[in-house]
Amino acid sequence: DCIRIVQCFEATRQRCCRLEQDRRRAREELARVEAERAALEVKLKHARNQVEVEMNKRHRVEAELEKQERKLQLVLEALMREPWGSGEQCSILSALVGRRFGAALAPGRRSSGVDESCQSLLSHSDISYDRTEDDVVRH
């Protein structure tokens, strides 16, 4: 009986050693994963800040574009009211206004030179800035 008890104790001791090794490996893996998560959170915060900066730039550029398009529209309207020497010059200007600038000068439209085939992917209105996760206290 004593030998059987000693064998059970030895088996239990070996099992405890294996469990301790497993615990040590799990803690190392946890530390590695937490470090990786922290690095990814830093990258995410940087990316969010960069998106915000780029969106602000885009808003400023779009406002400037609209301002310049309006100025161009006013100049073209003024030129159309000017008395021209020949009907040919007026028709050339009308064709230029209709073909070249018509779409760009329509209110609320962007310049036709801008490729917006990915507009839905890049639209600032589709981007969510949920910063609640940034403020979560981690233990």
Automatic annotation (TrEMBL):
PANTHER family: RAC GTPASE-ACTIVATING PROTEIN 1. One of its GO terms (biological process) is Rho protein signal transduction. This is RGAP1 protein. One of its GO terms (cellular component) is centralspindlin complex. GO terms for molecular function: GTPase activator activity. The keyword Chaperone does not apply. Residues 16-82 form a coiled coil. Keywords: Coiled coil. It comes from the Eukaryota. The gene is Racgap1_2.
